[in-house]
Amino acid sequence: MRIVELSEENKKEVQENILHRSPQQFGPQEAIVREIIENVKANGDAAVFEYTAKFDKAQLSAENFEVTEAEIAQAYEEVDPALVDVIRKALVNIRDFHEKQKQNSWITTTEKGTILGQKVTPMQRVGVYVPGGKAAYPSSVLMNVVPAKTAGVEEVIMTTPCNSEGKVNPAVLVAAKEAGADRIFKVGGAQAIAALAYGTESVPKVDKIVGPGNIFVALAKKAVYGNVSIDSIAGPSEILVLADETANPRYVAADLLSQAEHDELASAVLITTSEELAKKVSDEVEAFTEVLSRKEIIRKSIDNFGCILVARSEQEAIDAANEFASEHLEIMMKDSFEVMTKIRNAGAIFVGEYSSEPLGDYFAGPNHILPTSGTARFFSPLCVDDFVKKSSIIHYSREALEEIHKDIEQFAKCEQLTAHANSIAVRFENEEE
């Protein structure tokens, strides 16, 4: 693994390399995505079936497009009962965490007759995209469906690719059933996003689309935003580890590779104050890579987007981590909790050597749908808030409005909005000045 000094030049080079993977950088693919979206928008199910045959080699029709209860029951037969048990244990943690995020509507009143408040309303229908290309992700099902259902969303529509026989990964189906997905359709890619955004004869139009996917899915979400809401335009996975001389190099290397195996565009970066640790981690990365099942993907990821940066001080390392604003940030330092308080930008922060990133992916409870490509500077993890709308409530009695009506009229006249001023003044036009 490449080891370089943490200089402004090297830091900028690594940042630009990581950002180059962002969906914002894939112009040529956007034309393909736009064509798919317009076709689905115009031709509905027929276009979806056409693309599914082309990309997934599956022959779908109105009769086998939606997953049936019988198919879900069959999935339970095919999944190891021990895995079902693990999914249920993880669900408890995920639900408990997201329950704490719920907000209630509120009202405040005054004796003069003002009522102000906020009404929190769940979205009616949400679409969840679950990838199914290089790997199946039942964990993503839990992380998307649970906060939506916790928020009170009435109907969760899930889409996920099927294989050439028209079959969906059984673990994904079990996770969907356990989490509470209402309907599941066998479609992936940009065509799935288009179907959710505009509706087809079979797929109902949703209010919001959430869930990770490949570059075509990300670009499709970007294209339909505005017609529907989306969670974010997610880029490839990334991890940044902050470590000093107290860190275990095997742990650090293993955690870096846990993200590198996602795909060739995944990014794994270590920032350390110890040159000795940097060398040991690099050696461990090489040794682990040789024995891991996805070593070809890992090797490309590490060679192209992996790096070890050696900082001159702890503060320099922290400052760099805040600039990177990584999706996943692990801290393995002598004073890990103290360092954590100085982190401003990160999707999820894992504190201490036994808080490895996969803990967050599967089991701890916090959501693993996280901001990527530096967007942790202004975006947050997927949460219950993503599935509700907030409406302001305003009520003034005549007495309350009378006391301040001239102030409002003056403000409106200042902006030369005389109809605004008149809307207030007309309520007091018969009163003596």
Question: How are the secondary structure elements laid out?
Answer:
Blueprint: E1 3-5, H1 8-19, H2 27-43, H3 45-56, H4 69-78, H5 81-99, E2 106-109, E3 114-122, E4 125-129, H6 138-151, E5 155-160, H7 170-179, E6 183-186, H8 189-198, E7 208-210, H9 215-224, E8 229-230, E9 238-243, H10 249-260, E10 267-272, H11 275-291, H12 295-305, E11 306-310, H13 314-324, E12 328-332, H14 336-340, E13 348-351, H15 357-362, E14 388-396, H16 398-414, H17 418-425
Parallel strand pairs: 1-11, 4-5, 4-7, 5-6, 7-8, 9-10, 9-12, 10-11, 12-13
Antiparallel strand pairs: 2-3, 3-14
Cofactor: Zn(2+)
GO molecular function: histidinol dehydrogenase activity; NAD binding; zinc ion binding
Binding site for substrate: 237, 259, 262, 328, 361, 415, 420
How would you concisely characterize the structure shown here?
With 433 residues, the chain is an alpha/beta fold. It is 46% helix and 16% strand. The strands form three sheets. It has a six-stranded parallel sheet, sandwiched between helices. Strands 6-5-4-7-8 form a five-stranded parallel sheet, sandwiched between helices. Strands 2-3-14 form a three-stranded antiparallel sheet.
